[in-house]
């Protein structure tokens, strides 16, 4: 079943990558043009540095997990078994991690753009003249919303397949460890370590999706908070209407990322999938 799940994930990822190859270029161009259209500030480099560090941390963790998985699998005694495991399990998981890293990096990029909007929005409290007007911030936000919609459509298929595979792996691998410890006396440490790393990989995948979606939504919420504290005292009617219009747009053009509208990718995803996996595992253990 795990091989079938990986086949579905790999096939879905390839199909979506082929169908959305032009959309990826559009997303990259829009991210660059939107970032360049925001006036530079002393903190602009700090935002880029944070983005650089977070992206590298994600890649480092993924590489470490992949190398650890390969190391554990190469300890198999049979050379044929090494080859089969490498082709059928390790390689599809590398493909899966690559598309998740790509997706997370894109979401982090537009999150950084929203952070710059928040910075400019907060500067409106200090003086009437800011680096950006409210109308300019609104236009940038609309561009980010369009990028978010493109990212959502380009990745929702592989994300759904990946979540299904991760959920199945969480339940099945944990059950295999329990069953081996319960019914066999010679369970090897390599088997336990390998399955443990495999379970950890699934949690990492779910966490990447939860973290990226939640950080994007949280950054949009910060814009609303900053806009709420913008002073309208002594300002004209046009100023107040722009603030109200921007606030309304933040409400109805949410930065929430969903999978075909069924569920959102936010902080609750990690909890819901973990709780569901534990529930299924308890049910299976009762019939072991």
Automatic annotation (TrEMBL):
Bilayer topology: Multi-pass membrane protein
Protein name, as recorded: Gustatory receptor
One of the GO biological process terms: sensory perception of taste
The entry's keywords: Cell membrane, Membrane, Receptor, Transducer, Transmembrane, Transmembrane helix
Stored Pfam families: 7tm_7
Leader sequence residues: none
Residue intervals passing through the bilayer: 51-74, 94-115, 259-283
Protein's UniProt keywords contain 4Fe-4S: no
Subcellular location: Cell membrane
Entry's Gene Ontology cellular component terms: axon; dendrite; neuronal cell body; plasma membrane
InterPro entries attached to this UniProt entry: 7TM_chemorcpt
């Amino acid at each position: 079943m795990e091989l079938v799940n990986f086949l579905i994930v790999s096939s879905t990822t390839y199909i979506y990558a082929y169908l959305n190859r032009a959309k990826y270029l559009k997303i990259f161009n829009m991210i660059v043009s939107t970032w360049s259209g925001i006036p530079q500030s002393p903190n602009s480099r700090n935002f880029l540095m944070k983005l650089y560090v977070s992206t590298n941390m994600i890649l480092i963790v993924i590489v470490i997990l992949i190398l650890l998985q390969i190391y554990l699998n190469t300890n198999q005694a049979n050379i044929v078994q090494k080859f089969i495991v490498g082709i059928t399990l390790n390689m599809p998981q590398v493909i899966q991690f690559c598309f998740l890293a790509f997706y997370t990096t894109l979401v982090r990029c537009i999150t950084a753009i929203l952070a710059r909007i928040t910075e400019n929005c907060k500067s409106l409290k200090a003086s009437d003249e800011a680096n950006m007007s409210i109308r300019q911030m609104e236009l940038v936000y609309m561009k980010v919303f369009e990028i978010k919609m493109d990212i959502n459509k380009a990745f929702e298929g592989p994300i759904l397949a990946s979540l299904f595979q991760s959920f199945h792996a969480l339940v099945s691998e944990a059950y295999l460890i329990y069953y081996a410890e319960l019914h066999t006396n010679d369970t090897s440490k390599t088997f336990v370590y390998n399955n443990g790393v495999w379970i950890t990989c699934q949690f990492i995948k779910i966490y990447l999706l939860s973290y990226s979606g939640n950080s994007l939504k949280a950054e949009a919420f910060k814009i609303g908070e900053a806009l709420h504290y913008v002073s309208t005292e002594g300002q004209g009617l046009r100023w107040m209407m722009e603030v109200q219009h921007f606030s309304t747009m933040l409400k109805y053009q949410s930065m929430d990322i969903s999978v075909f509208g069924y569920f959102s990718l936010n902080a609750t995803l990690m909890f819901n999938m973990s709780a569901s996996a534990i529930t299924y595992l308890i049910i299976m253990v009762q019939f072991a």
